[in-house]
User: What shape does this take?
Amino acid sequence: MGILGKIFTWWDGATIGTSLFTARKGSKVGEDHQGNIYYQGGVDVNGLPRRWVIYNGANDASRVPAEWHGWLHHSIEGAPESFLPPPRIWEREFTPNATGTVNAYRPSGAMEKGGLRQKATGDYEAWSPDAS
Assistant: This one.
């Protein structure tokens, strides 16, 4: 991405302002398996350390793993790696939020699937303003 893209876009990585702030005030705490980098620096209005993430790709909060979400919101103090239990065999790999993509869930009556749905089964009666 060129310099103009960095100045005028916020949805794909860090802007120039965020990059400068991170370089001046941030200290790297860690990185997750998706390549997102987590920083800490300064103090917020509540006296807590200020924490933020620089995404590797699109800025989508659903791409923050649960352990790093807890760290960002001060639920845990140290780097999440030291607080993680071993992975369970039934745990699935992360899948990104599919809303707005071709992989999004679409029920049978959705316009993208033709807009047709099954008829009501008789337990439904349409409201009419003239009904008494």
